[in-house]
């Protein structure tokens, strides 16, 4: 049985790393993805955070396990886990020269372990953890890095670097909320940053706010909708999320009408009925925008949903998930506003039918 080790700092995990993991899993019977730690270097993400990132991006690849090692030669670590191969990626001529030296060194240390080199495809080859981190900071950095990292990692970056805080602070001021906006935001970060959140996390909130921005004047009470979008998945169901929002709004001195409207909008994202209120229809459609995204993005969403419900046995999950998808397909229209119907309806039907076919 061929077993290999793919090691790195993974600070953070990128789409290049993910490609290497997926390809390595095809080449070897078992692949150990190991986070190497150097006590003399201070990483951006802790060892625990990096291990968690790797587990999230590889959870549906059964022959991949995640591990870590510290202050140890990679070839010695590979030997300790009984791996006969080391997997490495090369992105440039310099990488090749560096790896060639390391291959010879490893061979001297243990001639029984072979190094295999992979060249990532164009578009991925230039992605590195360092290049991703170098993009963080300037205005709209969230948009710049999104294409280079897996969705769950993007969520970790948003949490780590508070990418949404300035928008949240502006909203807090516009609605004349008293008290600390930072305190409320910290609570939201904690809730959306829970380890099991692979889809219902800050990435979903960022995307929802972008969808809202695209409506350009169609929404009647944008501040209420924006507040509701930020809170709608804070807890593990819409009712609890609405209760949390109501509690925080009440403490902040907001008028009852604003509170009632915001909680109503949050509850509209449970999709149990089509609401008559215009803003409720828009927020529900915004929440369902993912259904009409391109296939690759939709499939990543499906992976995230399965990860969040991995505690549910496979057959039970398939039955429940199929019922949800059928419910959307059985509607006269998946979307209840003309804007989102035109934008996403056709692709959403295609995605849902394809996903349903895999479940039944």
Explained architecture:
This protein has about 350 residues and is α/β, with parallel strands linked by helices. The protein is about 55% helix and about 10% strand. Strands 3-2-1-4-5 form a five-stranded parallel β-sheet, with helices on both faces. The longest helix has 22 residues, at about 340-360. The chain starts with a strand and ends with a helix. The mean pLDDT is about 95.
- Strand element count: 5
Estimate the helix proportion, in percent.
55-70%
CATH superfamily assignment of the largest domain?
A: HUPs
How many strands, which pairing sense, and closed or not: the largest β-sheet? 5 strands, parallel
Which structural class do the helices and strands define? alpha/beta
Named at the architecture level, the CATH assignment of the largest domain is 3-Layer(aba) Sandwich
**Portion in beta strands:** 5-15%
Weakly predicted, low-confidence segments = none
Q: What is the count of helical runs?
A: 17
Distance between the termini: 33 Å
CATH class of the largest domain: Alpha Beta
Shape: globular
